[in-house]
Amino acid sequence: MNKPLAHGSVIGILGGGQLGRMLSVAASRLGYKTHIFEPTSNPPAGDVAFEITTAPYSNEEALERFAKSVDIITYEFENIPTGALDILERVRPIHPNRETLRVSQDRCVEKQFLNKIGLKTAPFADVSSLKELEAAVNDIGAPSILKTRRFGYDGKGQVRLTPESNLAETYEAIGEQLAVLEGFVSFIREVSVIGARNAAGDVACFDPGENVHKDGILDMTTVPAQISAAQRMDAVLLTAKIMNALEYVGVMGVELFVTGAGLIVNEIAPRVHNSGHWTQDGCAVDQFEQHIRAITGWPLGDGSRYCDVRMENLIGQDVGRVKMLAGEKNVALHLYGKAEIKAGRKMGHLNRILAKETG
Fold this sequence. Notes:
Layout: E1 10-14, H1 18-29, E2 33-38, E3 51-54, H2 60-68, E4 72-75, H3 82-89, H4 98-104, H5 107-116, E5 124-127, H6 130-140, E6 144-148, E7 158-161, H7 167-173, E8 179-183, E9 189-197, E10 203-205, E11 209-214, E12 217-223, H8 229-245, E13 250-259, E14 262-269, H9 279-282, H10 287-296, E15 307-315, H11 322-326, E16 331-335, E17 346-356
Parallel strand pairs: 1-2, 1-4, 2-3
Antiparallel strand pairs: 5-8, 6-7, 6-8, 9-10, 9-11, 9-13, 11-12, 12-15, 13-14, 15-17, 16-17
């Protein structure tokens, strides 16, 4: 793209959850409108978007109408049906690209890609039957984790194996789907890097954040992560390597295990990421604006952090703390407008300012 997308242009976003909501807000700050495509009614992004199409991804007419109404297309989640993408891409460009989606939609393909470009992952084996699961456990051992190859997030679609596990029951628990068995990684901490790349090949990364999960769901991310300067540099360079290999355009989240033997890639997310929400109150340009900048041809923003931050997710009944949190000093609330409270549902998050950078 030789020049930025014109002001007033419409960005199509596949998915109307909280990420689509925050992308819409960021787009509006840069003078763009957003059109959300979402199968369910009254999604969080619908409150702030210029337009919304409510239709299933199997509705070819709705998809084509949506594509013709926008100037470019992006997405807030990666598990978009291939058939829908085929229809959309015939009409408008999609960022990040289809190859990125192909790689990230399948855990086994993702790990093969990462290994091919020289990056370390947990040991893994493709599993398509109980017999293959038995062979994989004999090779990789236990403890290990059996994960569906597709459609898993926030701890869903995965089961931890121990030496005492009944393999037939375990395989049945994930619906006897195509799966991958991952060896257990003994790690010191988990960190993630939020990186951005534009069509010109410029790359900018935010500081690595240190993640804590509860019940398979991200609970909090703290920056700076408790890692060395060399580890911080390795994490950023590794993220840039992944994006360059994919000729990526947009923001990407890369989750990493910090081990005594170096960094191991856990997974990549081709979109803005929960662990990057701290950037909303810790940087002049946050991950959502950075994504809009990348896909519309703007210069990438400065991702420098000007304070220490801890992002805390508000999950389920946690949202009941909002009134109390609103009175706390150095707390910025970000609520998603979800009316129904469910266990495990992300209702919002807060960014707690811990200290100002002085250097």
